[in-house]
Amino acid sequence: MTAYKEIQGISVQTVAGDPPAPLEGQIWYNSSTGTFRAYKQSAIGAWSTGGNLNSGRTFVGASGTQTSTLAFGGLLDTGGSPEYFAGTESYNGTSWTEVNDLNTARIHLGGCGVDNTSALAIGGFEDAGNPTEDFAGTETWNGTNWTEVNDLNTARRYLDAEGTQTAALAFGGRSGIQSFYGFTESWNGTNWTEVNDLVSDKRQLAGAGLQTSALAIGGEGPTGVTAQTESWNGSSWSEVNDLNTARDFLAGTGTSTAALAFGGEDPSNPAYGLTESWNGTNWTEITDLSNVRRDLSGTGTTTAALAFAGGSDDPTTIVKTEEFNSPAVLTETITEV
User: Fold this and answer.
1) Which domain CATH number covers 193?
2) How far is C-alpha 132 from the chain's CA centre?
3) Is 306 within 8 Å of 50 (Cβ atoms)?
4) 335 falls within a domain
5) Most CB atoms within 10 A, among 7, 12, 264, 307?
6) What tens digit of pLDDT does each residue of 88-121 get?
7) What residues make up the domain containing 30?
8) Quick one: which of 105, 104, 103 has its CA closest to 55?
9) Would the pTM count as exceeding 0.70?
10) Residue 162: which H helix or E strand, with range?
11) Is residue 144 within 8 Å of 169, Cβ to Cβ?
């Protein structure tokens, strides 16, 4: 039999009781009870209703936090023919306010930024009449206006973007002539530079993190809808553990070691409410969205997130906002081993 020390490199600690602040996965021997004990954290939290968007839409770019979010672009719900939208709305934790428009109306764009005063709008699809009109345009938001800056090297839609206005990462996507892209580009506040590709080409994916440390989550690849997760270490992508449920058109938020993935669809299900939490190693299913939806957007962290826009069989979902809240310190559970 292999000893615990040979596996972990340390011996099991003997404690007269339980340690005051055990770490996730820590095992010890409780000499008071004569039992081996282990510690695990259980993610808890719930989605609740936030303020409705003024303009219901899908495929929206987003940046910010739960209480300071910017939503821009998207496909406007007109009840008739689709309308590519340049509108921007700002969320203050309670309600959405219309602010100045993008310079170019577009859908399927990437978006990132720290809050509703500083953001990037990246790429997308700008012309409903031309199925190959993929867009490379980048715009920056200064809290009042959008300004056109240098383009992506590769025009595309269905991409994801993570980071800040001056240090961002754009990855994945597709074009009218190429179904799937693995391209990754890094933004330094002035220019985009091509860096190492995703392990697998994909589109309609979600993401989380920063320019130097990010996740690419789910989406659709050449073999279909995927549960694949990839981790970016600042120079290259590597495969890590999959989502529990494969899906595309989902949203993600958080960091490379603490993320949420929610909503989406797959060929057998037109809209999901599923939420999964990432702890740096594994995905765990937690509380579902109150409203199933696909093509949605999200911002925030694993303890304070925002989900908004997106479609489902319920047409009222498209304007709804949901807020996810979980204690900063996750519920602690001690179990015998």
Assistant:
1) 2.120.10.80
2) 26
3) yes
4) no
5) 264
6) 999 999 999 999 999 999 999 999 999 999 999 9
7) 4-42
8) 105
9) yes
10) strand 160-163
11) no
